[in-house]
Amino acid sequence: MVKKMAAEWRGTWALVTGASSGIGVALARELAAGGTHLVLTARRKDRLDELAKELATKHRVMTEAFTADLADSHAPEKIFDFTKQKGLEINLLINNAGFGQYGEFPSIEKQRLLDMVQVNCAAVVHLTHLFNLRGDQSLRSPVRRRTGRRNEVFRNPCLCLVSGLDRIGISCCLRPEKI
To answer: Angle at CA 32, nearest 5°, toward 131 and 59?
Structure first.
């Protein structure tokens, strides 16, 4: 199924966040094997550059690496501007970047929690909005009319928005012994 999906995007551009490790690397490799050109973004430049070179050489696809930390609220705009400056039409946006934190809520550093919400929630909404609503450099771009392809946005299901933030979820976080 993944290989079929990857082949569906042959010759188009995909943007993968969190592409320096784990699921992001696996998705990038599958897409490249199917002939999809890639914009790879994550915090670790060395890993991004290495992956971009590997995929371009092995699968003969075009790759671009852009270092960004999605905990920075300006990062989505910077990523979008990078693709715009390069003239890349993104057909597939994979919001894979994200992280979690284990522990009792009061013991977790406030900035860590705020960064987690920024990366896992705000950046996802921001990137999706940028690539879905703006002019010819968006998922609603003329590419759809020329190619007839659906444009897609994927979110890693393992990194769903902030879950459990209802009364029960907060109660469980504050009193884990009640779980």
So the answer is: 140
CATH fold, domain 2-178, is Rossmann fold (3.40.50)
Query: Distance (Å, rounded) from C-alpha 140 to C-alpha 124?
Result: 17
How far is it, in rounded angstroms, from Cα 55 to Cα 63?
A: 7
Cα 37 to Cα 56: distance, rounded to the nearest angstrom: 9
Q: Where are the domains of the chain?
A: 2-178
Average pLDDT, the chain: 78
Q: How many CB atoms lie within 10 A of CB 116?
A: 17
CA 72 to chain centre: 14
Contact 95/42 with Cβ under 8 angstroms? no
In this prediction the pTM is 0.75
Q: What is the three-class DSSP state of 111?
A: helix
Residue reference for tokens 């199924």:
1
